Amino acid sequence: MGILFTGNLSPMASGFFRKIDQNHKIVVCGKSGIKDFGNLSVTPYDYNIDEAEFKNIFKTYSFKTVIYISNTIDGAIKAFDELENLENTLYLCRQNKVTNFIYITDNDFEEGTHENNSNSSRFILQQACESLCRNSSKEYGINLTLVRVPYIYNTEMNVKPHLFSQLGIWVNAAVLEKKIAFPGNPDDEVDFLWDEDLGILLDRILDDPPKGYLEMNIAGRNGMTYHQLSEMIRSHVADIEVSYIHKRIAIPQYAKGPEARQKYGWFPVGSLDEQLPGMIASCRSQYKKRKSFLFGANTKVKDVLSVSIELIFFFALTTYLDYWTADNAQIGFLDFRLIFVVVMGVLRGLDIGMLAAAAACIGYVFSATVELQWQIVFYNVQNWLPFAAYFLAGSVSGYTSDKSNDAIRFLKQEQEVLEQKYIFLSELYMKALENKDAFNSQIIGYKNSYGRIYEVTKKLESTIPEQIFYEAVQVLEDVLENCYVAIYSVKEDSDYARLNVCSKALHTVLQKSVRISDYPEMMDRLNADKTWINTKCLPDYPAYAIAITHNKKIAGLICLQYAEDRQMNLDFSNRFKIVSGLIKNSLIRAIERREQAECGTMIPNTRILRKEHFQKVLEVKRQMKEKEISEYLLIRLFNTGRKLTELSDTVSKMVRDNDIIGLGEDEQVYLILSQTNSGYLSVIAERLQKNQIQFELVHS
Q1: Entry's Gene3D superfamilies (predicted)?
Q2: Res 115: pLDDT
Q3: Cα separation of 387 and 394, whole Å?
Q4: Which CATH architecture does the domain made up of 450-596 adopt?
Q5: What is the pLDDT at residue 199?
Q6: 90 near 136, Cβ under 8 Å?
């Protein structure tokens, strides 16, 4: 399963990702303090959410779950673009059919954790983010889990200070600067959650993602006050200065909820009292070098200082050697300045080699003017040879060194390219294995196809169309492994298709009526009695559709609203045709039997079903309501002296063809409004009152 981690990843260390099942395809996109993921099955990217490359990641990988870590965690006050980034990520999830979304935010948003901050911009921002998550789950059917957490910490202190967790920043300040500044007051209660504990919980959520929308408050086992935390740090780092800002803004607290323990059997194990000494020791060893002479200097300044020291030292050494060996007949012929130029060129390259040559020339001039006048040194052509030799030696040795370094750099770049190609080929290999497994499952499914067809046929054996609708959704979801099924009915010469039944995931997404003329390309295929497949990825079109024809006219539609990439193939198309064909035949057979048996199922000269048949239809409607694949309203009509034929004619003019009129067990007339909720009640009530028909809502 593909999983994307994005957002604020700085508090998470490699141990967090190590707790996630490595059989998943894990992609990390965002600024992380992890230098190297080692042997973890993690593909890192460093893109911002508003960049085009971030959008391309969704196209490259088929994510089932996206985990977004809020910029507000760890008590961050400045959470720029948080709402925009969250909205953009949710939009990409909808576009790419991501089914599960986990939003991790801090728990200071909970009621009772603020003091007079309900109007603060940060509070309003968090409220808007959580409302966006709720609406996305409700309107678009995303399985969304909102996890509120306290301060998060990790025990790996081998990253840059600005990528520490908030606790890591305080520990770093205590070790290096001997002072800590806490927000809030000394008695404010806070809590700390180990990142590996959070990783264990997320792994369990990934194994069993909740349906719909779920909120949970997560607590660590380190509830304490700021004063207690400062004393805990003081017990390991002496003589630290502690100050408090005395503002209760953005302070994650201890807020424990029962959801994680009850649903996933999770409880935290990370103890700050046991882990803090190791964090402090790691921080001390990591930054021991920073206390040296060059502490705080950047890399360029260090390089300049290092080169300058080398030049001055070797130049002084060669000058001394030339002076010391001037009267020595055995080694007096050696030019130590020339050796100095060659050494600097080899060690530091062309630029430093030429600089060393210039320094050697200056040294030669000063040494020569001791015995000769400077005019003779410059005007005598023979004295130019040392200058030429110095610059020639510096340029040749420096060029050779630069050429060698460039070759090494190019080899490293080539190695990086080869590593990327290897990763790409490895992903292709894994994709080939997935295709192999898919083909194996197709072969196994083919071997069992006769049994599946018999099972489907038995389920669709009914003379009640409503019962067939109910079974059809479950059959399609089971056989096709797709939970985006919708079945419509189309009245003769009508431009609208009425939704009869749909999958639970589409229950709040699809409109109850659809204008079929808005889908000309699909209708051209269906009118030609062919299966529609959205190979052009046309927006708002269903992925698959097939027509239910009766008397050579379209009477209904069977649609798969969405399909995954792996389902856009010939094998899946054939399965859809076969199962839809069985459903289509069963529906047509049931409709024809109903037409032939109308005299037995309906009161003569009316649309009113007899008691026995009406109770069967009502029971099917109740089952569909329980499965959340359809909805209905049941209304009792009070007959005040009218004949049933007159009442039937009057009501039939006010309702749709898929609405049902029947006699109840109490001999009263009832009306079932299919695919209707209580919001539509005012419309039908107005129509009934205009025709002086009294009614009572029985079920909604």
Answers
A1: NAD(P)-binding Rossmann-like Domain
A2: 44
A3: 11
A4: 2-Layer Sandwich (3.30)
A5: 92
A6: yes
Residues 179/110, Cβ–Cβ less than 8 Å? no
Question: Please, where are the H alpha helices in 369-464?
Answer: 374-379, 384-447, 449-459
CA angle 411, 416, 417 (to 5 degrees): 95
The residue whose two tokens read 């199922």 is: 601
434-489 tens-digit pLDDT: 777 767 666 655 544 556 666 667 777 776 777 888 888 888 888 888 889 999 98
Contact status, residue 152 vs residue 74, Cβ threshold 8 Å: yes
Collapsing DSSP to helix, strand or coil, 644 comes out as: helix
Q: Going by C-beta distance under 8 Å and a sequence separation of 6 or more, which residues neighbour residue 145?
A: 100, 101, 102, 103, 205, 209, 210, 213, 214, 215, 216
Q: What is the value of pTM for the model shown?
A: 0.49
Q: Does domain 2-291 have CATH number 3.30.365.10?
A: no
Angstrom distance (rounded) from CA 287 to CA 329: 53
Statement: residue 196 has pLDDT above 70: yes
Q: For 228-257, what is each residue's pLDDT tens digit? A: 999 999 988 888 899 988 776 667 777 778
Model confidence pLDDT, tens digit, residues 50-72: 888 888 888 878 889 999 999 88
Task: Give pLDDT, residue 5.
Answer: 93
**Among all chains, which residue has been given the structure tokens 């980034």?**
85
Give the pLDDT confidence score for residue 545 in this predicted structure.
94
- Tell me the two tokens of residue 91: 């939009």
Annotated domain spans of the chain: 2-291, 324-405, 450-596, 601-699
Helix, strand, or coil (residue 514) = strand
What's the residue count for the chain?
700
Torsion from C-alpha of 215, 220, 223, 229, nearest 10 degrees: -130
- Which amino acid appears at position 346 of this protein? V
pLDDT digits (tens, 9 = 90+) for 349-364: 888 888 888 888 888 7
Q: Which fold has domain 601-699?
A: Alpha-Beta Plaits (3.30.70)
Nearest one of 154, 158, 156, 184 to 167, comparing CA atoms: 154
Cα–Cα distance, 72 to 307 (Å, whole number): 45
**Pairing between β-strand 42-45 and β-strand 100-106 as defined by DSSP bridges:** unpaired
pLDDT above 80: residue 221: yes
* Cβ partners under 8 Å of residue 679, min gap 6: none
Least confident of 141-145, 299-303, 337-341, 514-518: 299-303
- Distance, in Å, from the CA atom of 154 to the CA atom of 152, rounded to the nearest integer, reads 7
Instruction: Give the residue from 385, 311, 407 showing the smallest Cα distance to 353.
Output: 311
Closest CA relative to residue 306, chosen from 371, 456, 314, 432:
314
